[in-house]
Every structure is written in C-alpha cells, then in structure tokens.
Amino acid sequence: TLMKLAEQLSVYPHTLSKIINEKLGKNFNDLINGYRIEAVKKRLQDPREAKRSVLEIAFDCGFNSKTSLNRAFKKLTGKPPTFFKKNL
Questions:
Q1: In this predicted structure, which of 4-13, 15-24, 75-84 has the lowest mean pLDDT?
Q2: Is 38 helix (H, G, I), strand (E, B) or coil?
Q3: pLDDT at 72
Q4: Averaged over 29-55, what is the pLDDT?
Q5: Cα 61 to Cα 19, 37, 48, 64, 70, distances in angstroms
Q6: What is the pLDDT of residues 51-64, one digit of tens each?
Q7: CB contact at 8 A, 33 and 76
Q8: What is the 3-state secondary structure of 63-78?
Q9: CA–CA separation, 38 vs 13, rounded Å?
Q10: What is the separation of C-alpha 75 from the centre of its chain, rounded to a whole number of angstroms?
Q11: 49 CB contacts (<8 Å, ≥6 apart)?
C-alpha cells in the first residue's frame, strides 16, 4: 500500500503520492498495477504456467478480481489479457 511504502521510505504518504504523480505521471495504483501486469505477462509466457488460467496467474500477481485485471491490463496494453495469452 501507499502507506506501507511511505513508512518504509520514511516519508509522508501525501509526499510520496505527489512525487509519484509528478515524476512518473501516474498515480500509485497505476504504478503498482503496471508491475503486476508485467508479472502476469511474464508468467503467461512461461511454458510451466501454460495449464493455469489467466485469472489464477493474476491472483498470484496481486489482482483481486477479474474486473480489476481486465481494466488495468487493457489500460496499459490496449488489449485484454486473454488476447495476449492467445497470441503468444
């Protein structure tokens, strides 16, 4: 969470949020979802994960619903995660 990260960095959450917004041009949730989506994409490309569903992998990577996965994945890549998996 933003609170936990701010605590680890010894800064106020508001300060950290402002830095992320200004320097990276995105909010904290978009930043975290970007890392999660990259993890999902990497695992979808892993042959050892071929039998697992996109949703199972997404849950392992920190998403807590199919809706949040699809919204974030499409926002970042322009395509749904199932399209990504089918076109590997």
A1: 75-84
A2: helix
A3: 96
A4: 96
A5: 25, 8, 16, 9, 13
A6: 999 999 999 999 99
A7: yes
A8: CCCHHHHHHHHHHHHC
A9: 25
A10: 11
A11: 43, 57
pLDDT the model gives residue 88: 83
CA–CA distance from 64 to each of 29, 58, 67, 72 (Å)?
Answer: 13, 8, 9, 12
Give the Cα-Cα-Cα angle 9, 13, 32 (nearest 5 degrees): 80
CB-based contacts of 17, cutoff 8 Å, min separation 6: 2, 27, 28
Give dist(CA 39, CA 44) in Å, integer: 9
Q: By the 8 A CB rule, do 6 and 16 touch?
A: yes
For 5-19, give the DSSP string: HHHHHTS-HHHHHHH
